[in-house]
Design goal:
Blueprint (H helix, E strand, L loop, with lengths): L12 H5 L11 H7 L2 H19 L5 H25 L1 H4 L9 H4 L4 H23 L1 H25 L3 H9 L1 H11 L4 H24 L1 H7 L4 H4 L2 H15 L2 H7 L5 H20 L6 H25 L5
Helix pairs in contact: 3-4, 3-10, 3-11, 3-17, 4-7, 4-8, 4-10, 7-8, 8-9, 8-10, 9-11, 10-11, 11-14, 11-17, 14-16, 15-16, 16-17
């Protein structure tokens, strides 16, 4: 995926050393909520529910489901807060992140670090106590990969960050699945595969649109390091590997005919759109369409998967 990329301070050293002017207003509860990245948490909640429902065959333990969703969202919230803590100086350089609480100086780094640690610990406690050891262990995997391997290491050094970071993004449905089933089986790997394979092409479409912004901030995303054409090429195998998943889940009885047809069709359309990118001159327009479709792809796939889960 490319040689390790190191951010060179160079002419940007002054920008990194700048500290924001103390704001006139203090932090509010909205700033604490924003640190957890609510958009990511919403998708995590949906994915956790999908994994739990898939393993429950329309007969979920509602109490356990709710606690599993609470535990998962707290763990991922803690990871997101730590991500904000560690990226605070880099966030000052990107237009879409400059107004976050830390770059503005509305919260101290120490406060944010403790906030993330408390959220993560509380989430793991809920998972181990109410969702099972497997759910708790996968919660630890998600936290370590996102807050440690992705945020502290690969995000600043290598294009591998996107693919490795996708492991943590695929943990919520896995946590939900093992909490409901109490075991690791083919269904676990299938729900993991859907979320894992979806994330890199989804993110790379966004990265192509904002390639100059990422370049200026010093993040070694694939379009910055290897170029847009290489990024388009690398999207193809991830999308192509999504194609057989509906068939596998149908054959082994995890989902029905509707998901087989609709899930396969959605993957085929996404693959066709990605391949068309090699003939497009307007990369920004193309990447925007692919990015929007990827969101709809996941939403529709999960809904159909849930509705088409067989009854016990």
């Amino acid at each position: 995926m490319g040689k390790p990329f190191r951010y060179q301070a160079g002419s940007d050293a002054a920008a990194l050393s700048v500290r924001p002017t103390p704001p006139s207003e203090s932090a509010t509860w909205r700033d604490f909520v924003a640190l957890t990245k609510p958009g990511i948490l919403r998708s995590n909640l949906i994915a956790t529910f999908a994994g739990f429902w898939l393993a429950s065959y329309w007969s979920p333990d509602i109490f356990k489901l709710i606690l599993t969703m609470v535990g998962t969202v707290l763990v991922m919230a803690g990871a997101c807060v730590f991500n904000n803590y560690y990226d605070r100086e880099m966030d000052m350089k990107m237009a879409r992140t400059q107004n976050r609480a830390l770059p503005l100086g509305k919260l101290s780094p120490k406060t944010v670090l403790w906030y993330g640690a408390i959220l993560g610990a509380a989430g793991l406690a809920v998972l181990f106590l109410f969702s099972g050891v497997l759910a708790g262990l996968f919660g630890i995997v998600g936290l370590i990969v996102y807050a440690g391997i992705y945020t502290m290491w690969l995000k600043r050094t290598s294009t591998w960050s996107t693919s490795v970071g996708a492991i943590s993004g695929a943990m919520p449905p896995v946590i939900g699945y093992v909490a409901a089933s109490g075991q690791i089986n083919l269904g676990t790997w299938m729900i993991f595969a859907v979320l894992f394979l979806w994330q890199p092409p989804h993110f790379w479409a966004l990265a192509i649109r904002r390639v100059e912004e990422y370049r200026e901030a010093g993040f070694p995303v694939l379009p910055v390091v290897k170029g847009i054409k290489r990024t388009k090429l690398q999207m193809i195998p991830y999308i192509a590997l999504l194609l057989p998943i509906p068939a596998i889940m149908y054959v082994y009885g995890y989902t029905g005919m509707w998901f087989l047809v609709i899930g396969t069709a959605l993957s085929a359309v996404w693959l066709f759109m990605a391949l068309k990118g090699f003939r497009k001159q307007d990369d920004e327009t193309w990447s925007k369409k692919v990015f929007i479709f990827s969101i709809n792809y996941l939403t529709i796939s999960l809904i159909v998967m849930l509705l088409n889960t067989p009854h016990m």
